[in-house]
Amino acid sequence: MPAYNAARTLERTYHDIPPGVVDHVILVDDVSRDETVEIARQLGIEVVIHIQNRGYGGNQKTCYLEALRDGADIVVMLHPDYQYDSTRIVELIRPIVAGEYDMMLGSRLKRQPGQHGIPALDGGMPVWKYISNRFLTICENAVLGLNLSEFHTGFRAYNRRLLETVPFLLNSDDFVFDTEMIVQAVQYGFRIGEIAVPTRYFEEASSVNFQRSVVYGLATLNVLRRMMLHRAGLRRYRQFSARLADVISPHHSEAILGERQ
């Protein structure tokens, strides 16, 4: 759980996690100004606290390094803002456990069987956010050769092999980190699937404002531009060619990657 000022929603998110499914919960606090850390500790969650704010992407980097260090075989990333239905973790990881996919996304835009309407809008997603999400997703599908309903979800799962391979430490410390993870997964030949998950938009749930969303959208398009240049051989980016073992400190690689590398 990458957390920043999640005190009002953390407990509800945590208690919705199905019992007996998750072996270990790690929360990385990015210098919250509320009681996020205290509540997490009361819930028995392992807490890692950043000395200074490292941003959304920087928070995830710590999350994945700690999960790898802990020996995780499957890592679920879940925003602790109660926007995503954590009861769906079982469905999310099932295709990874079965060996069908290496990465799974919980899509707010995908319809459940028999469902009508637009799920994200029914859950309260602002219309402008839905339109921008769809536009970016269409662009990403076209460039990456995928057919996903959403790329911009904060509910996803990875197998260990993917996290040990892609050089996610070279990614942005901002929100575009999520897009970079998908682009890297495609570049390194990993399989990506998705399930439909309901969304909840309400006052306490974290949400990126319009200005930040514009910055995020431009950053997403820039990632696609870099990927196309890399594929065409016009420019090389370590982000799309190195491996995690190449960019991690040798003083930490054994503890994090173990003997698997």
TrEMBL record:
<feature type="domain" description="Glycosyltransferase 2-like">
    <location>
        <begin position="1"/>
        <end position="165"/>
    </location>
</feature>
<dbReference type="GO" id="GO:0016740">
    <property type="term" value="F:transferase activity"/>
</dbReference>
<dbReference type="InterPro" id="IPR001173">
    <property type="entry name" value="Glyco_trans_2-like"/>
</dbReference>
<dbReference type="InterPro" id="IPR050256">
    <property type="entry name" value="Glycosyltransferase_2"/>
</dbReference>
<dbReference type="Pfam" id="PF00535">
    <property type="entry name" value="Glycos_transf_2"/>
</dbReference>
<dbReference type="InterPro" id="IPR029044">
    <property type="entry name" value="Nucleotide-diphossugar_trans"/>
</dbReference>
<keyword id="KW-0808">Transferase</keyword>
<protein>
    <submittedName>
        <fullName>Glycosyl transferase family 2</fullName>
    </submittedName>
</protein>
